[in-house]
Amino acid sequence: MFEAKLTEGLILKKIVESIKDIVTDVNIDISPSGISLQAMDSSHVALVSLNLSMDGFEHYRADTNMVLGVSIANLAKVMKLADNNDQITLQADQEATHLKIIFENPKTERTTEFNLNLITIDSEHLAIPETEYSSVVTINSGEFSKICKELFSLSETVQITTNTDYVQFSVEGEVGSGQVRLGHNDSEKKEDQTILEVSESVQQQFAIRYLNMFNKASTLSSFTRLCLHQEQPLVVEFKIDNLGVLKYFLAPKISD
Amino acid sequence: AKGQSSLAAFFTKK
Predict the structure, then answer these.
(1) CB A100 within 8 A of CB A3
(2) How far does A103 lie from chain B, in Å, by closest CA?
C-alpha cells in the first residue's frame, strides 16, 4: 500500500509540467523513503531525474518498493483538474492497476478524485557515474531562463564556458555572434547572486532547445545549478525546498 | 561541424 499527501499540491503540478515535454511514459519508483523517477527523452539526449523525500510530505506511507508506470501526458491532463491551492494525495494498492489521485481544497470543500490507469513500461535504468563536477554555477533561475530563451532566437546551439572569473554563454549563427557573460556576484540581494565554483574550466556546446524545456522547472526553484565537467553531460538542477531535487542531464554536442 | 552526442555514450545500463 502506498499513500502520500502533499499539502502544497501545486509543486507536483509544476513538476509534471516541467517534465511532460521531455518524457512520455515513465516508471515512478516508490520506496519507503520517497518517490523517484528516471527517464530519458526518445532521442536519448536528455534525461530527467526526480527525487522526492518522504520528509517533505504531510503524510507518507509505502510498505514496500513499487513501480508505477504512468503516461506523463495523461498525468498532466489529470493535474489540470487540480486547483493551485489544492492538496494532492496519491494512492496505490500493491499490484495496482491504477494510481488514485485526490485533489482537496480545505477552504472551498471541493474534492476531485481520478483513477489514472497504470501502464507497463519496459524502460532501462541508467547508471549515472558519481562525478566531481569541475564547474558548478548557481544562477537565478529566471535569469538563466531568459538568457536561454533569448539566445535561442539567435542560434540553436550555445557554448558554455566557465573559468574562475565568469561563466559565458556564447552563440554563433546566421544573425551574427555574441555572448552573455556573468561574473561571480555574491551581492546582498540573494536573488541577484551568481555563484561560481570552478576548479577546472569547462567549454562545451549544447542544444538550447533542451535547456528551454528544462527551464520550465524554474518556477520550482529560485536558483538553477549548472554542473559541468569537460567529459560529462551537463546537469541542470532545481532544488525543491524541503522536498527534493529535479535534475536534467543533457549530452553535449561534439565534433563530428 | 558539431553533432549531438547521446547519453548512452556516457552512462551505462544498469
Answers:
(1) no
(2) 36
**Closest approach of A129 to chain B, Cα-based (Å):** 7
| Segment-wise mean pLDDT, segments of 10 residues, chain A, 256 residues | 96 97 96 97 96 98 96 97 96 95 95 97 86 97 98 97 97 95 90 94 97 98 97 97 97 87
- For A:138-157, CB contacts with B below 8 A are 157
Tally Cβ neighbours within 10 Å of residue A63. Answer: 11
Report whether A249 contacts A131 (CB < 8 A). no
Give the closest of B1, B4, B14 to A126, CB-based. Answer: B14
Spatial distance between the Cα atoms of A39 and A50, rounded to a whole number of angstroms: 9
Write down the ipTM of this complex. Answer: 0.93
CA closest to B10 among chain A residues: A232
